[in-house]
């Protein structure tokens, strides 16, 4: 991948809770020559001790991120107090909403830890533009073939802003509420009968 992009292109590795500490350390070391900026969510969410050890041992310049599967501010407090991450990634839909994410961000700011919300599209964008310790938002690619940019909540929501050239202007968020509407043509169905 590094050979296909410039040296300053931000590469990150998302492990989705699939590794143990030893494997994560070997992976981080293996990524060193390619200039990966961070290793994300590589251990189970409650392995605070593993994350603390990982953060101390990753190659210099590589950040450890976690938190997308953390559900309370008290779990984030534990991550912060134990020095588990350089970047916290709360998901606005899982951590208790926007107000709770602001509280988590304030705790992170007190420890000089960045906050990059996990996915959640327009709900995270509004948060990011108001926080100085949140340098960017994660954009999840929703096109099945990864051949076009598709907003996260398509087809459920209309008017969902999409970054252009990797950037989203704050003016794209200048609409009532979160600036999106429910799609009245979206056929909703229950996937299960019970």
What can you see in these coordinates?
This protein has 194 residues and is an alpha/beta fold. It has one domain (2-182): TIM Barrel (Alpha-Beta Barrel), CATH 3.20.20. 26% of the residues lie in helices and 9% in strands. The chain contains five helices and seven strands, in the order E-H-E-H-E-H-E-H-E-H-E-E. It has helices spanning 21-31, 48-57, 73-81, 98-110, 121-128; strands at residues 12-14, 38-40, 63-66, 87-88, 114-115, 157-158, 181-182. The strands form two sheets. Strands 1-2-3-4-5 form a five-stranded parallel sheet, with helices on one face. Helix 3 runs parallel beside helix 4 (98-110). The N and C termini lie far apart (45 Å). The mean pLDDT is 92.
Spans of at least 5 consecutive residues whose pLDDT stays below 50 are: none
Spatial separation of the terminal alpha carbons: 45 Å
Fraction of residues in helix? 25-40%
Oligomeric assembly: single chain
Q: In what order do the strands lie side by side in the largest sheet?
A: 1-2-3-4-5
The structural domain count equals 1
Question: CATH superfamily name?
Answer: Enolase-like C-terminal domain
Largest sheet report: 5 strands, parallel
The total count of strands amounts to 7
The mean pLDDT is 92
From N to C, what is the helix and strand string? EHEHEHEHEHEE
Q: Compute the CA-based radius of gyration.
A: 18 Å
Secondary-structure class: alpha/beta
CATH architecture, please?
A: Alpha-Beta Barrel
């Amino acid at each position: 991948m590094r050979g296909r992009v410039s040296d300053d292109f931000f590469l990150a590795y998302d492990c989705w809770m699939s590794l143990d500490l030893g494997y994560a350390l070997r992976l981080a070391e293996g990524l060193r020559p390619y200039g990966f900026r961070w290793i994300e969510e590589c251990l189970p969410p409650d392995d605070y001790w593993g994350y603390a050890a990982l953060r101390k041992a990753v190659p210099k310049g590589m950040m450890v991120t976690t938190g997308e599967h953390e559900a309370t501010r008290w779990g984030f407090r534990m991550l912060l107090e134990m020095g588990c991450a350089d970047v916290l990634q709360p998901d606005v839909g899982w951590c208790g909403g926007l107000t709770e994410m602001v509280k988590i961000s304030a705790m992170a700011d007190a420890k000089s830890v960045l906050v990059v919300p996990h996915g959640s599209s327009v709900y995270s964008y509004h948060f990011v533009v108001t926080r100085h310790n949140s340098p960017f938002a994660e954009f999840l690619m929703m096109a099945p073939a990864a051949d076009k940019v598709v907003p996260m909540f398509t087809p459920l929501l209309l008017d969902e802003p999409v970054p252009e050239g990797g950037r989203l202007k704050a003016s794209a968020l200048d609409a009532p509420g979160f600036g999106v509407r429910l799609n009245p043509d979206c056929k909703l169905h229950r996937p299960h009968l019970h």
